[in-house]
Specification:
Layout (H helix, E strand, L loop, with lengths): L2 H18 L13 H13 L5 H11 L10 H9 L2 H13 L8 E12 L2 H6 L7 E5 L4 E12 L5 E7 L5 H11 L1 H5 L5 E3 L7 H9 L3 E3 L15 H18 L10 H25 L13
Parallel strand pairs: 1-5, 5-6
Antiparallel strand pairs: 1-3, 2-3, 3-4
Helix pairs in contact: 1-2, 2-11, 5-11
Length: 297
């Protein structure tokens, strides 16, 4: 790895390990600690390894000094699926450590997370009932899977996220994300949320106003345009770049998960990696991209 990635891995491990210090744990301590597990998961995403088997092979060859013990693929996958709560916790922990956490503007949008393509795979998938068929206007195609709903700052820092059936109303998911974490609105009074036309709703406007929030979104063509509406498009494009980063650089579309816990873990892993990269960049003022990778896969 490059110096920047090594610095991130070290800082991330220390931050997680310090945060978990003194946390009681039942049973025999694992040979791979939780701090090591999350650091490995972040580095896997940043280095672009969609395959856990290939990632662990790479880690044994190049990261043996940093990680003396590495489990087999099945053990690593099992630990990662069981760490969903831990992943969500440290997405928030790292986000709070950045100055972007205090931004008074949030952007919301959703993007498809495809989980299967062939009909036989859909029929036997453990995701049936949660995942379903949806339509992606930007790609003009149908897909089978979930939609990732992401609330972030204009700087790309994830604030809240959720996975939902493609046909679930975006407005309902936004309301659930905002009220699902009581501390979120308590620590961010008077927040402004920018969305697209999918969030047009008088009921949602009333809900947002009742919680001291302001929702900015375009009007339908048959309605009178709001003042300053032309300024929203550049802002909304920012979250498109975040989705492109998750899909292009962090391989969100190649998650390969086939169970609810697996999908949550793989998506959470990508969002944690994005948050960790921003956290590192803000602390060290050093851009971190996959172009910095020194080793060939």
């Amino acid at each position: 790895m490059t110096t920047n990635l090594e610095t991130l891995a070290t800082a991330l491990y220390v931050r997680i390990d310090d945060s978990l210090a003194g946390t009681p744990r039942w049973g025999r301590p694992p040979r791979l600690t939780d701090a090591e597990l999350l650091t490995l998961a972040v580095m896997q995403a940043l280095l672009g390894f969609a395959s856990e088997t290939r990632w662990l092979r790479f880690a044994r060859r190049h990261l043996a000094a940093e990680f003396p013990y590495l489990p087999e693929q099945s053990g690593y996958n099992k630990r990662l699926r069981a760490a969903n709560t831990l992943i969500s916790r440290f997405i928030r922990t790292l986000a709070r450590d950045t100055d972007l956490w205090h931004d008074d503007v949030w952007i919301v949008d959703s993007t498809p997370v495809e989980c299967a393509r062939s009909r036989p795979t859909v029929q036997r998938s453990d995701l049936a009932g949660w995942a379903g068929y949806g339509y992606c206007p930007s790609h003009s195609r149908f897909f089978w899977g979930l939609r990732l709903h992401l609330l972030c700052t204009p700087g790309g820092l994830p604030i809240a996220w959720a996975l939902a059936h493609p046909k679930t109303d975006e407005r309902e998911v936004l309301a659930d994300m905002l009220t699902g974490d009581p501390d979120l609105l308590t620590t961010h009074p008077g927040q402004t949320v920018v969305g697209d036309k999918g969030y047009v709703s008088k009921h949602l406007d009333t809900f947002m106003a009742g919680h001291g929030l302001t929702l900015l979104r375009p009007s339908y063509r048959n309605l009178k345009a709001r003042s300053g509406e032309h300024l929203l498009k550049p802002i909304r494009q920012l979250i498109e770049s975040v989705n492109d980063t998750l899909k292009g650089q962090l391989d969100l579309e190649r998650h390969g998960a086939r169970t609810p816990a697996g999908v949550l873990a793989r998506v959470g892993q990508r969002i944690l990696a994005l948050t960790a990269a921003i956290w590192h960049n803000r602390a060290h003022n050093t851009p971190l991209t996959r172009s910095l990778i020194a080793y060939d896969h």
